[in-house]
Amino acid sequence: MSAPGHVVVVGVSAAGLGTAEAPRRKGLCGRLTLIGAEPEPPCDRPPLPKQILSGAWQPARTELRTAEALDALDADFLLGDPAVALDVERRGVSTAPVPR
Ligand SMILES: Cc1cc2nc3c(=O)[nH]c(=O)nc-3n(C[C@H](O)[C@H](O)[C@H](O)COP(=O)(O)OP(=O)(O)OC[C@H]3O[C@@H](n4cnc5c(N)ncnc54)[C@H](O)[C@@H]3O)c2cc1C
Fold this sequence. Notes:
Elements: E1 5-10, H1 14-25, E2 29-36, H2 48-52, H3 67-72, E3 76-79, E4 83-87, E5 92-95
Parallel strand pairs: 1-2, 2-3
Antiparallel strand pairs: 4-5
């Protein structure tokens, strides 16, 4: 088996987290980077217009993973700027700030 490489996942939500967790769990990646357009930690979206807007839930209840689980992923989280380009030849992903 080849040496673990650097895995970059774009999108930090349900699918992105699952995509990142699988190779980490199987020991298939060394460095792991998750790039998310939103500055907030990943959250479960369905309760946002319902339980959160109505005030029935505290926002923390929508967190998809605990802080401990995110720490255990041993990943670099680049949150707040979207990925805007993939350079296949140089094997790089670029991000760009979005005016907020
Ligand atoms: C308000 C709301 C209510 C919903 N209610 C329901 C419901 O009741 N029932 C139901 O079944 N589903 C519901 N959904 C849909 C459900 O939340 C989605 O199916 C689920 O979130 C899909 O997860 P995902 O990880 O595939 O995509 P998403 O949750 O859409 O996550 C994709 C992530 O990738 C990020 N991203 C995209 N492009 C880039 C880029 N270039 N660079 C960096 N990051 C990027 C986005 O910012 C986002 O955080 C709802 C969605 C919303 C928004």
